[in-house]
């Protein structure tokens, strides 16, 4: 009986966390470069139930031999294992602002690969983003909207000396007659990237394999890849599952109440 409580409760907690992930996706539907989270549910390890007993041999003294009989497996609940970002390309919207840049995937030899802009956080560490909503700070450096510096391929901050600069489709910032290649990072397995907040990702990067292509469009932004209609449908589905587990929990509670208050009552 108590195991049923735990199983139903774990289902409610899992659906609550799934609701939170969907709500966060919807709240970021207009955030440039945002990648939707996909909660993955996983069952707790199953338990194999066995009946323990003994068999009596037809002997003079009735010798008994212990034995076990398998009944079957018993599931012990479910939980949200992790939220995995979906790295599909978002829609591209023209803004006409020279500091806005959209990173458009071309040919990626690895089906699970992904491309990112490289930025430098407050601690001087490299992080990665798909949000190309950039600007120029007071010192003339190209920065992300959180104030993080945009880096070039050599890991240096990109100095533009103002808004009068151009970016070619192959990712070169043209400043004062010089070409500065933007730091476009590549990972062969995007599922290993972890969100760090403020649109930043952390993970292991490698050199892009031969044949990898992409396009930088200046004056454009990649939109969020959240499908708001699908997210709302998933929220409703999750809410119904939460209600179902809630009713199961209530039924267990009523059964326990009867067991405590009625079964042991003397007539």
TrEMBL record:
<dbReference type="InterPro" id="IPR020013">
    <property type="entry name" value="Flagellar_FlgE/F/G"/>
</dbReference>
<dbReference type="InterPro" id="IPR001444">
    <property type="entry name" value="Flag_bb_rod_N"/>
</dbReference>
<dbReference type="Pfam" id="PF00460">
    <property type="entry name" value="Flg_bb_rod"/>
</dbReference>
<dbReference type="Pfam" id="PF06429">
    <property type="entry name" value="Flg_bbr_C"/>
</dbReference>
<dbReference type="InterPro" id="IPR053967">
    <property type="entry name" value="LlgE_F_G-like_D1"/>
</dbReference>
<feature type="domain" description="Flagellar basal-body/hook protein C-terminal">
    <location>
        <begin position="217"/>
        <end position="261"/>
    </location>
</feature>
<keyword id="KW-0969">Cilium</keyword>
<dbReference type="InterPro" id="IPR010930">
    <property type="entry name" value="Flg_bb/hook_C_dom"/>
</dbReference>
<feature type="domain" description="Flagellar basal body rod protein N-terminal">
    <location>
        <begin position="5"/>
        <end position="35"/>
    </location>
</feature>
<dbReference type="InterPro" id="IPR019776">
    <property type="entry name" value="Flagellar_basal_body_rod_CS"/>
</dbReference>
<feature type="domain" description="Flagellar hook protein FlgE/F/G-like D1">
    <location>
        <begin position="113"/>
        <end position="172"/>
    </location>
</feature>
<dbReference type="GO" id="GO:0071978">
    <property type="term" value="P:bacterial-type flagellum-dependent swarming motility"/>
</dbReference>
<keyword id="KW-0975">Bacterial flagellum</keyword>
<keyword id="KW-0282">Flagellum</keyword>
<dbReference type="Pfam" id="PF22692">
    <property type="entry name" value="LlgE_F_G_D1"/>
</dbReference>
<dbReference type="GO" id="GO:0009425">
    <property type="term" value="C:bacterial-type flagellum basal body"/>
</dbReference>
<dbReference type="InterPro" id="IPR037925">
    <property type="entry name" value="FlgE/F/G-like"/>
</dbReference>
<protein>
    <submittedName>
        <fullName>Flagellar biosynthesis protein FlgC</fullName>
    </submittedName>
</protein>
<comment type="similarity">
    <text>Belongs to the flagella basal body rod proteins family.</text>
</comment>
<keyword id="KW-0966">Cell projection</keyword>
């Amino acid at each position: 009986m108590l195991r049923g409580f735990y199983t139903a409760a774990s289902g409610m907690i899992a659906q609550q966390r799934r609701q939170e992930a969907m709500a966060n996706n919807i709240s970021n539907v207009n955030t440039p470069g945002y990648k939707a989270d996909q909660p993955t549910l996983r069952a707790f390890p199953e338990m194999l139930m066995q009946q323990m007993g003994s068999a009596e041999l037809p002997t003079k003294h009735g010798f008994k031999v212990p034995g076990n009989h398998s009944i079957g497996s018993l599931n012990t609940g479910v939980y949200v294992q992790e939220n995995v970002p979906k790295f599909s390309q978002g829609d591209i919207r023209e803004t006409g602002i020279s500091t806005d840049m959209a990173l458009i995937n071309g040919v990626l030899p690895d089906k699970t690969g992904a491309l990112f802009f490289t930025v430098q956080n407050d601690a001087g560490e490299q992080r990665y983003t798909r949000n190309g909503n950039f600007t120029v700070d007071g010192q003339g450096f190209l920065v992300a909207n959180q104030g993080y510096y945009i880096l070039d391929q050599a890991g240096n901050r990109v100095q533009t000396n103002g808004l009068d600069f151009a970016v070619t489709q192959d990712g070169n910032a043209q400043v004062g007659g010089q070409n500065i290649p933007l730091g476009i990072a590549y990972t062969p397995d995007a599922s290993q990237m972890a969100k760090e907040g403020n649109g930043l990702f952390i993970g292991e990067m490698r050199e892009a394999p031969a044949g990898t292509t992409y396009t930088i469009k200046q004056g454009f932004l990649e939109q969020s890849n959240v499908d708001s209609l699908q997210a709302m449908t998933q929220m409703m589905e999750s809410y119904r599952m939460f209600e179902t587990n809630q009713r199961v929990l209530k039924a267990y509670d009523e059964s326990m109440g009867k067991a405590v208050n009625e079964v042991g009552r003397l007539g």
